[in-house]
Amino acid sequence: MKYGQHLLDNIAPQYGADAYLDYSALDNVIRVLSGYSPASVDEKQKFLSLSTPPPTNARGLPSQKPDGSLEDVTEEYFCRKFEAELARVETFTLSQVTALRDAISQVEEALVVLLHQHPQTNKSSHQAQKDKWTQQTDQLSEDFLRLEKYVNINFMGFHKILKKHDKYLPHTPCKSFYVARMHAQAWVRGDYSDVVVRMSQIYTTLRDEDPSSSSIPSPPPPQETTATTTTATATGAVQQ
Description:
This protein is mostly helical.
């Protein structure tokens, strides 16, 4: 199976196609630059100019941009397009990682409260809260695996399109440069192991329900107050 079809078959509905590398557009640029496949016909063109020749590429072949507009397609255009795709994937990846970390923090904060409640007071409510946060963590685990798959399929696509570029355009190789550049970007070199570790700690806490063995921080101790304030607070807690 060709990578283009593999990419289409593995697009996550939660992300949508626009979040992924536009592999076909970059592939079309290489086709135009190399001339190994004729440019597609512009069905919207209504007239011809007998005095102005159509734009051509370096090989003298009709030059057409992937969006269908007749315009010079150069190596510089490929580089700009590739850079834009890299930036889009990086931005999306980092936004998803940030959202995951924020969601994990919310679960951790909720567990701090849950761990310091007395389950014997209301067993059914306590168990319902545990089930709720377990399901939430399960969903976060699925979200992380989906993002990991997204990163890998785009990473593979960038490698493949660069390999194809250098194969059909050997006089202007760029794979080595862009592979090094890609590996220096945050979405590739980033360490996301903290996400896995924190979710593992949440599962352990929910299973054992032992604050002493949990890595989730306990709430700060109450500040010292006067006897009157303490009594009033205790009375209010009983009334609640």
